[in-house]
Amino acid sequence: MSSELPQTSNDRSNGETGAQHGAADGANPPAAVVLVRGATVHDQAPKPQANAPTENKEKSPDKAVSEAKVKLQESLPALSDDADVGVQKEQLVTRDGKADLAFTGTLLASAAPATAAQGRWQEYRIYVTNAGKHVFSKATRTIFADQTDTYEADVFDPAPSSVPSKLLRGARDLTHHSPMTWADAAVAFFGYDPLAKTLYRKLSGQFEEHIS
Question: 66 near 144, Cβ under 8 Å?
């Protein structure tokens, strides 16, 4: 006895209809259908990522520069007052937040980097006044028009007259067992970065540490 069930006319018509649809579609198969808990879900094209990078972004505008400062940058490591080294004259040293320093004296040495690729650089200078005081100057320059140069300066007096200065000098001398010199004051102001070492080499060997 055969176990196959007889095919009804409805089953035959459904099969024929499906075959007709397949033939009509040709090479394009029907869209995939997934049944999820009785609901029909059709495949969808992937959505673009929200954070995907976009092409042709606008570049930030270049900063305005000062033509005069660009010329200073192009002449590095030469400085505008190189010809004044060793010449006694009236000097004016600018400093921020305090009165500028005016004196008669000599520019002993100056130093600047060979290049300033980022548009910023520093200039170091050491002066000596006719009275034997030393003046240390540090200028930080920028070529950008919306940024200002900054200036620092300090004075070393080998014989300070004020009582607080004498007490401070005396405490330092007791700690280090030797009087503080202008070279010590220069190192305290400039440190030992590469530009400071370039400045010291233009002066004397007293900035070097001699060992035996």
Answer: yes
